[in-house]
Request: fold
Amino acid sequence: MIRHITIPRGPVELSADLHLPVGFEDAGPLPAVVLSTPGSSVKEQIGANYASRLAAKGLAALVFDPAHQGQSGGEPRDLEDPYRRGEDISYAIDALNTTAGIDPHRIGVLGICAGGGYAVHTARTDHRIKAVGTVVPGNMGNSFRSFQPDGPVAALDAMAIARVQENRAGVMTRQNWLPDTLEDAAAAGLTDVDTTDAITFYRTERGRNEHSTNRRLSRGDSLLLGYDAFHLVDELMTQPLQVVLAGRIGNTGSYEAGMQLWKLAPNPVDLLVVEGAGHYEMYDVPEYVDAAVDRLASFYAEYL
Reply:
């Protein structure tokens, strides 16, 4: 069962889906998991794949579109602000705190890809979160800094100039998260398996959704360059941690980020490497998603 809800977030509202187990009305107050989805993703994509399976395991699972994206409010559109992404999770918990049938003291998070980093960063300081699950977690700050051919400082200098020009022109520029087609990727020389998998998921019928624009507001990139999802994890994130990684190590950095998180966390309790799976195959390939959810459900059953 899915309830379509809105979550108040200051002057805007977040669009969300609350996945509930069959017969939840008779189950008593349920534990709940808030899902934090990958960059560019909307709630009907990867989040729904995991939330529906968690609900089938007896958990309430809340997945939402971040502010400025999907069907949620917020201007300017297509902004990827890592700090606001973390705040979104806390607002989602606020909503669950007052939702009938949800136990406000048994709430966890599940972060996937970039959402894994956002979930971890939020859990450090929002201790209403009682358990932290991650699947192919990414640290967007590290990723964006590593993508800059001339280094992050040169990139920030260029962004400063570009923002002045944008303000004078009265326009805000956007850029692609991914090439829009496999042909565009090939023309740009991007033929590695991870890029191909990502485009196949996000930009074809496999996983495409009309509310996922594949665009990112350029001025938000300076925020990503200064961000570290794992800052102070070793000091502040005391909650039990589950890490699920893809066994085929590619160029997304999620395997390396997941292992770094595992070593930093004060209370790591379970590490699962899904052999044979690639990063983007963890989004929707049934055997891999099922393996992850089976392990996550056991983790949440013990710690929520």
Q: What stands out?
A: The radius of gyration is 19 Å. The mean pLDDT is 97.
